[in-house]
Amino acid sequence: MRVLSILLFVLSSSSQALEVRVWPEKLWVKPGEAVVLRVTSEPGAVIDCRVVHQVDTVAASFEGMTDGEGQASFSFTPPADWGYEAVVTAVLGEARATASEVFSCAASPFMVAVDYSVPEVYGHDVLPDGSPAPEGEVQNPQLAARIDQQVARFRHQYLTVGELMGPAFCSFSSIVPPVPNYYKAAHYNYSVNAIRQLIRELHDNGIATLIYVNACASGIAGTEFARQHPEYLAYSADGTPFVGGLSLAPVEIHQWYIENYPDSMKQVQGWYKENPRPEAVTNYKPKSLHGGYPGFINAWLDFRDPKLSEIGAEKIIEGQEYYGYMGVRYDGEYRVPSIGDPLAPSRDFRDYRGVKQPVGHEAEEMTARNLNLAFGKMREHDPDFLIGLNYADFRNDGRGAGSVKAPVTGSVSPGVWILDEVAKGALNPSHPDHHWEDFIRNMSEQNDRTRQVGNYLFAGWGGGPGQKVVDTRQVKAVSWACGLRWICGGYSKAQWFADVKHEYNRFALRYSQYLFDNRLRRLSPEEAAAVITVESGSPLLWEHFVQRLGDEYMVVHLINAPLEKGLTADAQPPLPAEGVRITLTGGMGGSSVKLVSPELPVQALEIAEGAVSVPRIENWGMLIVTP
Amino acid sequence: MKYLVLLLLAGSVVAGGLKVEQQTEFIVENDYYRLVIDTARGGSIRSFIYKPFDISKDWIYAKGGGLLQDMIWQQRHPGELQDHPYEYRIVEQSARHLRIELWRAFRQLPYPGLVMRKEIDLRADSPAIRVRMTLENTSEEDVFPGAWVQNRFFGGGNRGVPVSFRPSYLGIRMSYFEGGRGIGDEFVRRPAAGWAATFDRESGAGFLGLVDYNYLQQHYSCLPAYTMEFFFDRVLVRASQSWTTAYMLVPVTDMSNCYYADERVYVTASQAGDQLTFAVHPTSGTVAATMLSVSAVTSDRSAELGRVSATFDAIGAGKAATISLTVPGIEKQPVILKLAVVAEGVSGEQEFMYYTDSGGYHLQESAVTYRAELPRKVKPELMEDRNLRLEAKSGLQVFYAYGLWHDMNRVKEALTALDPAVVFDESIFQTGTLGHELTRQPLLAEELLGYDLVVLNNVGAEALGEAGEIAVEQYVRAGGSLLVCGGLYSLGKSRWHESVLAEVLPFSTLPFWDIHRLPAFTAISGVDGVAVQWIQQPKELRGDAAVLLRAGEHPLLITGGHGRGKVVVWLGTPMGSPPPNVVPYWESPSWVPTLSKILSQNLQEVIR
């Protein structure tokens, strides 16, 4: 054994090089806010730290030495918006090591949100004896570890926004739960301690938090709200409330749990201990706590009375005070007619007298009024309050939907996150975005209009367990080139993007200004052809991906064209493009051209006779052309 | 001369070392179609080629496609029958006729031992697929299953744009799925007639389905998956007995809509300006002597806009006879049309709201006021007259069906005050995809005869189901006592007016919109300092009705009788948010004694 130990030591020693790591304390900061850059290496290492932004502009340089713990830190206040990269070199004697990490600065985390996810930290904060932990730091070690894992995941995937599901599924009952460890049915059993700690830790890491809100009445408190205000319910054509369901069987045990808390919690913990596999036990009591919503699930509401929107906003503000989140993401807003699709005739909503809800422009005006009222209240309370809507407002389905929805679009601008959930079915062959050509056109046009009013476009991605697109790099590159961000990570059923999240998301955050700046104007293919031509040995997508920021710069995305016509599961990735030649015309000939790519180091390309050559595009590259 | 060709590769033949395995498919061919019945896969039709349309296109898609796919909706989709082997026997086979019977027993809950049996009837001279479906109860207990038949196909063999036309209480409902988006209803609840059509918009090819309206619970079309499905009512199948219904599928081509259908003819319509043209098509083969009349009235029924009628001697297969009607203003506003058909001596009617633009806003706008009068279903097996007698038991026994906010009416407290040992057998109301239900539905009046009282506390006729409605009616008629409490799921909001229970109450009910909000919380007469704001309103009191409590002029507590039984109805609801100085009835200490006293006085014959 002694021989083996010596051998291991020798191997370790001989392979051990100087290591250095740089860690921005925050992934995202607001303008004027400093980022602390923490450097870790060997004690006594000489540290050189350069902070780079734009393509390769050095924004700041720092020098120093690590302390006896091998630590050094620098404080940096970004001079402008968008992505930064801290590049650190450590020197110790003859040894030398380099590392880098990216972070961002923006007035809104939506600006630099390359993706989006849901940190799931469900479970109760229980002490070993089954009693609830006191208010404060999470005591349940499993829960605490889960929070740490989620924060680490967000950092690893460079996500600047997280959405919390559960507490505000219904925003008309109080978002403040009746007891600190609460069952909201389904899998939304959560603890206030955990939610608060998660929010706090995400914020400490420069990650914004939104609370998911469904503009319906659900659960015990939502059902009680409906009882007190049946005038606010939306009714079906048969005179009954328009609901996703009504389940009274679990009400009793939920009420018992609340009324007898914390003893009830202890008792429930005991049941679990007796039956560690409760799903196998018929009529097992905790099943009702975990099962369907007690009372209404998604009782839709009639928002003709603006008072209802104000109530919703007040509850969200109350919840912000209680939990500390930064904003809200609506899954269905205070819409007239109720949150169903205004174009779908099956959504026949009435009030309790049978008087129908309006549709069309009148309805959109009411919706706009409601959102103005609610958002005004929230922003009055917190000027930086973040707002997201699930609202594919710019989809043109041939019925003039865009124009019908114009009042709402106007009312929510600027600064709002717009989610197009319709896009999530793009793998379906009959989906309007299924073909890459349609996807690019639809998303680019939608993004153009979203940008014009100062909002941010995101798309929801579905996908069941096991569903994969082999080359997710393609989806990401094309989407970002369209200005679209996907919401795809974090839900347990949509984890398949994770394989490229790290490298691609890092790249997108670093160069976010060339992807997501709302001032970028997309050139039509004809306009693009007037300033640039691209030749390649294999097909490249670029014509729809030429964008300009006035006279400052032009961005050209070069993406290897997919082999399949449609977004297809298990599609083969295209081969790298080689021998790419780009000719600049229309006054762009004397420019500086730089190539950035997640697969390649930054390259300044030499212009010869108005043209540049790119030897190889692995999958995606961006040309930054500066006149 | 038309012949039916049947190919069955059967048996296990060994010839010179060549072994042929047992085949499970029947390939059946006539001038209209070539189809394959796969006995090993749910006894379903797994291939269907319609010769008049395109002999190269199979309408059944590969994954999951098939006609006549059986289930009961008490099991989760796809249930335990689809894709499983059915036993079979040839009932009749000739050059002109094939009848094949297929069956499989359920092995899983809730009805192990129930047998799904279907007889597929195919004829040389007809494109129709006729089915007699039987649920056979081999157990020793009564069961209450609801059949569910799925037909999954591409109309004409093309994915295209699937369109459905189905009749409901809101009129003829059109749905389609285009560009990844569904427009219109998937479920059409409360069907108004026993037909449905699903077809491809471009080619007009698809199926017309015909079922017995008396047992049709709802239509369903999952258009992304191109289905036409029938949910049948739950039916009472006594031990060792069976229930049988018939349905048929008819392939169609050139269909662009459908406004009427029966076994003899179906009717489509087209519009040019303000002229409507109706085409009468034979459903299956030639139809003799047919009369079609069409009338149009304004959407508020205030004026007749036109009327036309024609008689046709015979309409050949694949042909259509037409009549036209000019309806002034139809391009700008919806009108109510009524079709009356007499074909080969059998008559039928269909009324609906007609929209020039049947998609989008127009449908939603005008669907507001229109309601079709639904024919009452006839179910002889439930309606038989039996000599029912209440069973005497000691102590108060209550069948307590409860719904939303039931506890706030404090009925249990009032009954417990009458008998501290009262026994409540509970049944809980719930709603979901398939509508209103109780966790325990009485199927026969005999199940209720041992109860002193049946309480429907914010639970309506809809949730009881037709068997339950009939059971409760028969129970009360036999001398039972019934307490009904109002609410968002009770009385007019529960199809009560269309139910046999309509006869039980001491008043008639308003359909759908009978909840009334008083301007403020209003004192309840006869109960000190107690108020209510949200109440349910009766349409008209019957002669024997006695109003015991009121809120202002509004009746709140009404008693009456039905047969030998007694009925008490509480029309108050525990809804609303009272101002601080007002005590709502549900919070008042005087409410429970009041209710207790009323129940005691009015239900005393049975509450011993």
Defining key terms:
heterodimer; A: alpha+beta; seven-stranded parallel beta sheet; seven-stranded antiparallel beta sheet; 30 strands; 26% strand; disordered N terminus; B: mainly beta; eight-stranded mixed beta sheet; globular
Architecture overview:
The complex is a heterodimer of chains A (627) and B (608). Chain A is α+β, with helices and mostly antiparallel strands. In chain A, the strands form seven sheets. Chain A has a seven-stranded parallel beta sheet with strand order 9-12-16-17-18-19-20. Chain A has 16 helices and 30 strands. In chain A, strand 18 (417-420), helix 12 and strand 19 (456-460) form a beta-alpha-beta unit. Chain B is mainly beta and 608 residues long. In chain B, 8% of the residues lie in helices and 45% in strands. Chain B has five helices and 41 strands. Chain B has a ten-stranded antiparallel beta sheet, with no helix packed on it. Chain B has an eight-stranded mixed beta sheet with strand order 32-31-30-33-34-41-40-39, sandwiched between helices. A five-stranded antiparallel beta sheet of chain B has the order 7-12-20-19-16. In chain B, strand 10 (114-123) and strand 11 (129-137) form a beta hairpin. The longest helix of chain B is centred in the C-terminal third of the chain and has 17 residues, at 461-477. Chain B starts with a strand and ends in a 6-residue tail after the last helix. The chains are: A alpha+beta (627), B mainly beta (608). Chains A and B meet through helix 4 and strand 14 of A and strand 15, helix 1 and strand 31 of B.
**Main beta sheet of chain B:** 10 strands, antiparallel
What percent of the residues of chain B sit in helical stretches (DSSP H or I)? under 10%
Instruction: Name the chain pair with the biggest interface and residue counts per chain.
Output: A-B, 42 and 52 residues
Radius of gyration of chain A: 27 Å
Q: Give the beta-strand count of chain A.
A: 30
Low-confidence stretches of chain B: 9-15, 359-368
Distance between the first and last residues' Cα of chain A: 67 Å
Structural class per helix/strand content of chain B? mainly beta
Biggest β-sheet description of chain A? 7 strands, parallel
Lateral arrangement of strands in the main beta sheet of chain B:
8-9-10-11-21-18-17-13-14-15
State which percent range the strand residues of chain B make up.
35-45%
Count of DSSP-assigned helices of chain B? 5
Q: How big a fraction of the residues of chain A is strand?
A: 25-35%
Instruction: Please give the share of residues in helix of chain A.
Output: 25-40%
Q: Report the uncertain regions of chain A.
A: 1-15, 341-346, 396-403, 489-496
- Terminal CA distance of chain B: 75 Å
Quick one: how many beta strands of chain B? 41
Task: Report strand order across the widest sheet of chain A.
Answer: 9-12-16-17-18-19-20
Name the assembly state.
Answer: heterodimer
